[in-house]
Structures are given as C-alpha cells and as structure tokens.
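Protein modeling request. Please complete all fields; requests missing the sequence field cannot be processed.
Requester role: graduate student
Desired output: 3D structure, token encoding
Chains: 1
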Amino acid sequence: MMKQLNIFLILTILISISCGKKEQKPLTEAEKPLFETVLAENDKVVKSLLTTEEVSPNISALLVSVDTLAAAKGGLESTAQEMKTALETAKSPDVKVSFVGFSKFSEILAETMKANGLQSGRNRFYCPMVKKTWVLSGQRIENPYAPDMRDCGDLIP
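Delivered output (157 residues):
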C-alpha cells in the first residue's frame, strides 16, 4: 500500500511538472528583422555610453524596438517581455541602478542571440571588475560601464 502511494505521488509530481511547462513558440521569420532592430538600437546605446561618463543610458528607442518584438507574438515574445522588465530598471536616473538593469538586459540579449543563431557579428562581453555584461559588434573590448577601464573585460563565447 505504501509503495503504491509513493508511486502515485511521484507520478503526480512528474505530470504536474510536465504540464506546468509552457510550450515554446517557434521563432518566426517576421521576428528576425525585429530582433536585428533591437540589436542595432542596443549598439547605439552602448556606443553612447562609450562617449559619456556616469550617465544613465537613453533607452527610449531600444524600448520601442523591444515592444515591437513582443507585439509580433512569436517565439521571442516572452524573451522580449523579460528584456522590457530589465530595461524598466535601466530607465532609473541612478546610474548604478540603471547599469544593473542594462547589464541584465544585455545578458538576456546575448542568451537569445546565441540560442537562436542571431548574432549578426555581435558578441557578448563581461567585465569582472564591474560585474556587468554588454553586447556589441566586433571583438574589440570597449567597456561602456567604466570610463577609466574601457579595455577591461572578456569576450564570452
């Protein structure tokens, strides 16, 4: 009797776990150029951070591109929502808080690029000194978070 109860509990747990997973929608062809727009807007934000010091990034155009990607209702919809949540933090006037949000957005962006083969010549970088991530074209390390350490960081495959 006890053995049957244990088997029943295990089966119930396994069924609830498998039913609880959301089925991932496939990436649509319409999403690819929208994701490329997100990447292009990200490039602009990172490049602007490279020319400023201790200023929260202007992410308004980047937010619009992420919203457009989410509105496509394809395989990247939930990812775009995660990006948007991170970017809401990046809107903070507090530079430290803003950089944390932008770094989180960059992590999601990098994971999405890699998982879907959408790099378009862009790479993920990480600086262990400031503990932040960014995505940028090319392989040259240009740390947008630390003006005094622009060449600090690693290219993350």
